[in-house]
Specification:
Elements: H1 2-17, E1 24-32, E2 35-38, E3 41-44, E4 47-48, E5 50-52, E6 58-68, E7 72-81, E8 87-92, E9 96-98, E10 103-112, E11 118-128, E12 133-144, H2 146-149, H3 155-163, H4 173-181, H5 185-197, H6 202-213, H7 238-271, E13 277-280, E14 286-293, H8 296-307, E15 313-320, E16 323-333, H9 336-349, E17 375-384, H10 387-398, E18 404-411, E19 414-424, H11 427-441, E20 450-454, H12 460-465, H13 493-496, E21 503-510, H14 513-525, E22 530-536, E23 542-551, H15 554-568, E24 573-576, E25 590-591, E26 635-642, H16 645-657, E27 662-669, E28 672-682, H17 685-698, E29 705-708, H18 709-712, E30 722-725
Parallel strand pairs: 5-12, 21-25
Antiparallel strand pairs: 1-4, 1-6, 2-3, 6-10, 7-8, 7-9, 7-11, 11-12, 13-14, 14-16, 15-16, 17-19, 17-20, 18-19, 21-23, 21-24, 22-23, 26-28, 26-29, 27-28, 29-30
Helix pairs in contact: 6-7
Length: about 725
């Protein structure tokens, strides 16, 4: 039948249009008036295009052929909605197990209940393994009063027809289709278009369906039979008079229905002018555009549907002459791939059409939504007593193509420089940007806060600069700036030597610059003047040292030292600069994250001195205490060699609980692959002896060996080494 073919076509279109991430798709869907028992089982009866309204029992059966794409336990649920899209019933099905992909399954359910006359919409959902219900298909059918399903003939007409020796001629193919379905070809086309656009001209179509279904079947006289007798036309009955009286009222209803249908088509066409698309703006983030509306209430209605998904979504207004357009957009998202995934989620969950398009090159930006009299939102990135630190954070944020600025503030007599990002037209977008900056820059312990401010307090220049944050059209695509980590230069010799004596805080020394960068960023975000400098160990390895300062006196450096300990947990050391050189600093700070041996935590209790081989012009460093009498850098305590790697890791964990740094490294002993465990390194031999004694007393280690770490430094402090004492 034609309507069954239409439902099948809709089911196929829905299956092909559905993204592959759906757990199932419908290949065929139709309605039947009954179920018939056969020798092979139960099969659907005749296909129907109209169900009886206000039925006492079962009105019909809804049959779907489904392909289960995702293996697992599938539970189909069908929500039945009336013309106003209000849920009137729910159909539930027993679980079915899909053992593999493309598992074919036929779903049959009875449609029972006193449904009102009009259109019924069937929304099909699939729930896999107890997960969320995912929308997979939509179908619809009309319900009519039972007395209107089969027209009743007058007694005289039935008697006259019985007396006529007529023979029914085979109707043409077109007539058979029309008589069997009650639909004209143009009705089917209009119905398909209506279903695609989400609207149905109910009154108008119902009137045409009723008129067509109530027409008597066409008959042709047999050539051998006599022509039918012409019966006298009966006088108009009282019912006919009443029908004639109701014609103006019905005409007005049809006009109102046509107007409502035209308005619905206009709203749908208005929304589909811009299908949901992913765009990338100048700030480097991506957005999903969901639709453009001429009426704000339509935009707010769509906004409410998307907000239920707990996604950042907002409305942007665009004044075009004397008209205002309202765009609904979701985002921002950190990457285009993330936006594409969210577009698919929105399309599946909210039942919206989604197309992903590339940004249009050369499109012009529109007037910003933010105005001076409105409230906007900014992100607080930190307050700094040192303006240089504020400048560095500002530069890092601006490298991400995000509008940022600084403000001067006073608190308890102290001067601070605040760094803020924005402004943003709404709070969800500001919070999304704060989350993005937190994840991409990794400069804060927690996500930066968002607060509302008056747009007038920011100034016209800043509002113009942030206009890119509120455009509603894609602007010309620009490649996002590549994030590079820029380090502030170490103070020069002249800067440090400007005073007779300067105090500094030596925080830590690292073998890898990325570890030093992370600690430096952490200290800078807390308002400390941190910088890096490099030195070399006797083995030739470069060390990256973190310094804080300089300070005018040692008391200031000691206060900074305590702050560093609280912030990083590293036992930093406050000290005087020696000899006016920025490169010769006596250091008792710890070396942390030497890496390479599965150990990335900073030293907890021991310290390592950072040295540099003296050159010809640095002979005065010999009396600075940087070098031991033997010329060795430090010492390492070896506690054992293990053929079982897990045993080595277990012993290293026990030693760390004692407060020492433990390392393990693969070594070859007499041709065998083993794992060595060592403790340290230590600056003084006495410290190494104390550690060795405690390890023997408090662990299962029977004996240890202290080695010179200047050789084993090439192996991250846990290689072969040169024995010093056992």
């Amino acid at each position: 039948m034609l309507l069954a073919w239409a439902l099948t076509l809709l089911g196929l279109n829905a299956a092909h249009a559905a993204p592959t991430r759906k757990p199932a798709y419908i290949t065929n869907a139709y309605f039947s008036s009954s179920l018939e028992k056969t020798s092979e089982g139960v099969r659907p009866g005749p296909v129907v295009s109209v169900l009886p309204a206000n039925a006492d029992g079962v009105a019909g059966y809804f049959i779907m052929d489904a392909v289960l794409v995702k293996p697992g336990s599938h539970v189909f649920e069908v929500e039945i909605l009336d013309e106003k899209r209000l849920k009137v019933a729910t159909m539930a099905y027993d679980p079915v197990e899909a053992s593999g992909e493309d598992y074919i399954y036929t779903v049959v359910g009875s449609v029972a209940g006193a449904f009102p006359q009009g259109w019924l919409h069937f929304e099909v959902y699939d729930r896999v393994d107890g997960g969320a219900a995912i929308h997979v298909s939509s179908h619809a059918i009309m319900t009519r009063d039972q007395e209107r399903l089969a027209p009743v003939e007058e007694p005289q007409t039935r008697q006259a027809r019985a007396e006529e020796p007529v023979q029914e001629a085979s109707p043409s193919e077109e007539e058979a289709q029309n008589d069997s379905t009650g639909l004209l070809d143009d009705d089917v086309e209009r119905w398909l278009r209506a279903m695609e656009q989400g609207w149905t001209p109910l009154d108008e179509q119902e009137a045409r369906l009723s008129a067509k279904s109530e027409q008597p079947a066409k008959r042709k006289p047999s050539p051998a039979a006599a022509a039918p007798r012409q019966l006298p036309e009966p006088p108009p009955a009282a019912e006919s008079v009443r029908e004639a009286a109701r014609e103006p009222e019905q005409a007005s209803k049809r006009d109102a229905a046509r107007a409502a249908a035209a308005q619905a088509r206009a709203e749908v066409a208005e929304q589909e002018q811009i299908a949901p698309q992913v765009t990338r703006l100048k700030d480097g983030l991506s957005y999903v555009s969901l639709g453009v509306f001429g009426r704000k209430e339509n935009a707010e209605r769509l906004l409410a549907r998307i907000e239920a998904l707990e996604l950042p979504v907002h409305i942007q207004s665009d004044e075009q002459g004397d008209k205002t357009r309202y765009r609904v957009a979701a985002g921002p998202f950190e990457s285009r791939d993330h936006a594409k995934r969210m577009a698919r989620v929105i399309a599946d969950t909210a039942n919206l059409k989604t197309t992903v398009e590339a940004p249009r090159v050369g499109a012009r930006s529109v007037k910003p939504v933010m105005r001076s009299g409105e409230t906007v939102y900014v992100i607080g990135l930190g307050s700094f007593s040192n303006p240089e630190n504020a400048r560095r954070v500002l530069s890092r944020v601006q490298q991400m193509a995000v509008t940022a600025f600084t403000q001067e503030a006073e608190d308890s007599g102290r001067h601070f420089t605040r760094v803020l990002a924005g402004p943003f037209p709404d709070k969800p977008r500001a919070k999304a940007m704060a989350q993005s900056l937190f994840e991409r820059l990794k400069l804060w312990r927690r996500i930066p806060g968002v607060r509302a401010v008056a747009a007038a307090s920011l100034g016209d220049d800043l509002m113009a600069e942030s206009a890119v944050s509120s455009v509603s059209e894609p602007i010309e695509h620009q490649s996002s700036a590549k994030l590079t980590t820029e380090r502030s230069p170490s103070p020069t010799v002249q800067e440090v030597a400007s005073s007779a004596r300067k105090a500094v805080v030596h925080v830590a020394a690292f073998l890898h610059q990325q570890d030093a960068d992370a600690l430096e960023d952490k200290l800078v975000m807390q308002g400390l003047t941190a910088y890096q400098r490099t030195s070399r160990a006797p083995g030739g390895r470069r060390l990256y040292e973190i310094m804080v300062g300089p300070f005018d006196n040692l008391e200031q450096a000691q206060r900074a030292e305590r702050r560093v300990r609280q912030i990083s947990g590293v036992a930093a050391t406050a000290q005087w600069e020696r000899g006016g050189s920025a490169r010769r600093v006596e250091s008792r700070a710890q070396a942390s994250r030497m890496t390479g041996n599965h150990m990335t935590q900073p030293v907890a209790t021991q310290a390592v001195k950072v040295i540099e081989t003296p050159s010809a012009d640095q002979q005065d460093a010999q009396d600075s205490g940087l070098f031991s009498e033997t010329g060795r850098q430090d010492y390492t305590v070896y506690v054992g060699f293990f053929s079982n790697y897990d045993n080595a890791v277990r012993l290293a964990g026990q030693i760390e609980k004692l407060g020492y740094r433990a390392m393990h490294s693969p070594v070859r002993v007499r041709g065998r692959e083993m794992t060595s465990v060592c403790v340290g390194p230590f600056r003084a031999l006495q410290d190494a002896r104390s550690a060795a004694k405690e390890v023997v007393e408090r662990t299962a280690v029977a004996r240890t060996e202290i080695r010179d770490a200047s050789f084993s430094g090439r192996k991250e402090g846990c290689g072969a080494g040169e024995p010093v004492e056992r």
